[in-house]
Specification:
Layout lengths: L2 H6 L2 H15 L3 E2 L6 E2 L7 H13 L12 H10 L14
The chain binds zinc ion.
Length: 94
């Protein structure tokens, strides 16, 4: 893949889809109070996220349309998107 392709890739929508799947299975959580997304290091839930990702591809779920059938990209993003989230939201700190 060339450098230009890298910039053209619809990264934002792909990341958003990965975040949605992580939220759905509980890899990531959304605080019910402030709506901030947190990563509480629930690594044991990653297999469920991967399973859901495969199910999305199998049934052509519109949520993962941005991946154009690239399962590996989604599977790696299920992990990489977690980097941007903190363990705690502001209202849970202290
Ligand atoms: Zn909060």
């Amino acid at each position: 893949m060339g450098l230009l392709d890298l910039f053209r890739r619809p990264d934002a929508s792909r990341d958003r889809a990965a975040i949605e799947i992580d939220l759905e299975v509980g890899v990531l959580e959304r605080c019910p109070v402030c709506r901030t997304i947190t990563d509480r290091q629930y690594d044991h839930r990653l297999p469920a996220a991967e399973q859901l990702a495969h199910q999305c591809f199998d049934r052509d779920d519109p949520r993962i349309a941005a991946f154009g059938g690239n399962r590996d990209d989604l599977l790696s993003r299920l992990r990489s998107v977690r980097d941007r989230f903190e363990y705690d939201c502001l209202c849970q700190e202290g």
